[in-house]
Amino acid sequence: MDPKAFFKLSYGLYIISTEADGEQAGCIANTFNQVTSSPAQVSVTLNKDNATEQRIEKSGKFAVTVLQQSADMELIGRFGFHCSRDTDKFSGLDCGTDEQGLPYVKAHAASRFSCKVVKTLDLGTHVLFIGEVVGSEVLDNGPVMTYEYYHQVKNGRTPKNAPSYQEEKKRVSGWRCLLCGYVYEGEILPPDFICPVCSAPASAFEKIES
């Protein structure tokens, strides 16, 4: 089996968010898809260790923000490489509240969906949620972020909890953050360097061979 075949599949990049027992959570996902049109139903797959997945299990609802190409690595890093258990990911951002009272990110958003869970499927390490769309809205007409764009243009990394995670080969010289994939270009990494995306220290960087 050639794992590179999976790279030919088309994905978007989304922020999945929810709230349970007064606690908000959100994460980056590339597994959001429409499954039926009537009724309008969607699916998303999340890792069981993810705080967002656990709070969706409790609340039975989730919101989705479709990201645009303009989304910066700081926003992606905040939702993709930090945990909602110890980080208020929505603090200081332009956010809204959907039809179910859930938070969603408005910044760099092409559209958003509000979904009610109607079915779940245990996939071992992950859970597949099927959601009925109870609200949706176009927020901007800018080009949407694809997973390919995220990797090739943003030089992003796939978190190990993501369903599409695969070991990546080193391609450029410099230092790569093991948490978020940010690349520091240069032969010497300053010992006091802090990753601008996920705030990881210099010790979390690996040397990239040219």
UniProtKB/TrEMBL annotation:
InterPro entries (alphabetical): Flavin_Rdtase-like_dom, NADH-dep_flavin_reductase, Rubredoxin-like_dom, RUBY_RBDX, Split_barrel_FMN-bd
Pfam families per the UniProt record, alphabetical: Flavin_Reduct, RUBY_RBDX
Gene Ontology MF: a single term: iron ion binding
Residue ranges of every copy of the Rubredoxin-like domain listed in the record: 172-208
Required cofactor names: Fe(3+)
Domain of life: Bacteria
Alphabetized UniProt keyword annotations: Oxidoreductase
CDD domains associated with the record: rubredoxin_like (cd00350)
Protein name: Flavin reductase
